[in-house]
Design brief:
Elements (H helix, E strand, L loop, with lengths): L10 H4 L4 H14 L2 H8 E4 L2 E4 L2 E4 L5 E7 L3 H12 L5 E7 L7 E2 L2 E6 L6 H14 L6 E7 L3 H4 L9 H14 L3 H9 L8 H6 L3 E7 L22 H10 L8 H11 L17 E7 L1 H14 L3 E9 L3 H16 L7 E7 L13 H13 L5 E7 L11 E5 L2 H7 L4 H6 L3 H5 L5 E2 L10 E7 L7
Parallel strand pairs: 4-5, 4-8, 5-7, 8-9, 9-10, 11-12
Antiparallel strand pairs: 1-2, 2-3, 6-7, 12-16, 13-14, 13-16, 14-15
Helix pairs in contact: 2-12, 3-4, 8-10, 10-11, 13-14
Length: about 450
């Protein structure tokens, strides 16, 4: 995928000092985690051997080669895998988000689109077919699993005593209450069939290699896409604690409450743990992540003779507070006597507690949280970006803020705090022309934010 810098800009950004260069920095970050290229770096055939990462398999020993997966980058990953493996693929299915594929299949791998983040019947049907595809394999078979962010919702297969409607209701509750991705996935792993190592368990005793694009801070294998092929360290007790922590019990679907009670009583087996024998047949490889994107942004910035540094790739917490914290850092640096532009990059995933009925995701809310504290600062611009191109509902991936944003909004009669209370960041930035709308990037490595501080003599 060729990432065009113009996809990462708008008139608002171009009006800021060095805005065009900042757009190129953002494009370089996304290009570094391109899903197709990442797969090609880790998957290849040499003579009669299949090489996956540091593993090597004799193709003569493989009876069936199955390709399965789920995630927002799934179609792009499947395209690369199909080009490499060709006719050696004996079957496959990959589930991706709506609008994230321009083909219904690549070679022998079928591509199915489904809803995200709230699962739908298409995802359930495709997940059942995925389960059937891997459930009759033996030790002479090989499964290549393509995993990326969004895989949890897309590969939803409810436990036998639950329904799709049960999981849809729970998902909406979790998305509104401010639960972290770890907490959300802890529940998914104990309520569905493929998460929490379930896919690997069903494919055993086949050999399994997973190529994983991480959208989770720190890239814990058990959390990315709910750990489809990784041991699960959480338990039914942990899942119940998430329900209690966010006071969800009163609104919880009765079938989910009963399922968790049965799990706590030991009537339902817990997810496979690290000591399970099945893991001797599983290899997991992180092939792209947030630090790689951030590092590429730094490298590109230095090509423009910027000073550049990574603040963190572990940014978490409530989005609006994170915005205020970043604004404070920007204000502090802006008071220094800089010799040349300074770019600060941060990555991670914040959370949003939904209390209003507005529109906009965590990246837009983070930007809105910074508006007041950046007001009046000259030569400072903040840009936030969901690396998959989608930030909550709507067509935006993030937003641009500078020292004039608050004043521009007030001329429209907007109060930033009012829009924050209503969780309506999209409708705050849209009239200003400050939303970034790159479209689906077909990759997903969490969120990035960029703070560019430019000395007055470097404005052009």
């Amino acid at each position: 995928m060729f990432v065009k810098p113009e996809n990462y800009t708008n008139d608002y950004l171009l009006a800021t000092p060095r805005g065009a260069e900042l757009a190129e920095v953002m494009a370089a970050a996304i290009q570094a985690v391109d899903a197709e290229n990442a797969v090609r770096r880790y998957l290849r055939i040499e003579k009669n051997f299949l090489r996956v990462g540091n593993r090597q398999f004799n193709l003569d020993d493989i009876k069936r080669l199955i390709v399965v997966g789920a995630g927002k980058a799934g179609a792009a990953m499947a395209k690369a895998a199909a080009e490499i493996l060709g006719e050696k693929i004996t079957g496959g299915i990959v589930i991706t988000k709506d609008g994230h594929s321009d083909a219904k299949s690549y070679g022998g791998v079928e591509i199915v689109e489904a809803a995200h983040p709230v699962p739908d019947e298409r995802g359930v049907t495709a997940s059942k077919r995925l389960e059937e595809l891997v459930s009759d394999l033996n030790e002479n078979d090989f499964v290549l699993v393509l995993i990326s962010g969004g895989g949890s919702a897309l590969s939803t297969l409810p436990a036998d005593d639950l329904t799709l409607a049960d999981l849809q209701k729970l998902t909406r509750q979790l998305l509104r209450c401010g639960a972290t991705i770890d907490e959300i996935n802890c529940l998914r792993k104990h309520l569905t069939e493929l998460a929490g190592g379930g896919l690997a368990q069903k494919a055993f005793p086949a050999q399994i290699c997973s190529l994983i694009i991480s959208d989770v801070v720190g890239s814990p294998l058990g959390v990315i896409a709910s750990g489809l092929t990784a041991p699960d360290s959480t338990t039914f007790a942990d899942a119940r604690r998430v329900v209690e922590r966010y006071e969800l019990a009163a609104e919880l679907p009765p079938a989910i409450s009963e399922h968790l009670r049965r799990g706590l009583r030991g009537e339902i087996p817990d997810t496979p743990k690290a000591d399970d024998k099945l893991w001797k047949n599983v290899s997991n490889f992180i092939i792209a992540d947030n630090p790689a994107a951030a590092e590429s942004a730094i490298e590109k910035a230095r090509e423009f003779d910027f000073d550049a540094e990574i603040l963190t790739v572990c940014l978490e917490g409530e989005a609006s507070q994170a915005g205020r914290d970043i604004a404070a850092i920007a204000r502090n640096f802006s008071q220094n006597n800089l010799d040349k532009p300074l770019l600060l990059v941060a990555g991670g995933e914040t959370t949003v507690t939904v209390k209003g009925d507005g529109k906009g995701g965590r990246n837009q809310k983070l930007a809105l949280g910074a508006v007041k504290d950046l007001s009046g600062l000259e030569n400072v611009v903040l840009a936030t970006l969901a690396t998959d191109g989608g930030d909550g509902a709507g067509d935006a991936a993030g937003a641009v803020v500078d020292g004039k944003t608050l004043e521009s909004a007030e001329t429209l009669g907007f109060e930033a705090e009012d829009f924050l209370r209503r969780n309506d960041s999209y409708n705050f930035f849209e009239p200003l022309g400050a939303l970034l709308k790159p479209g689906a990037t077909l990759t997903n490595v969490n969120d990035l934010l960029f703070v560019l501080i430019t000395p007055p003599n470097h404005e052009k």
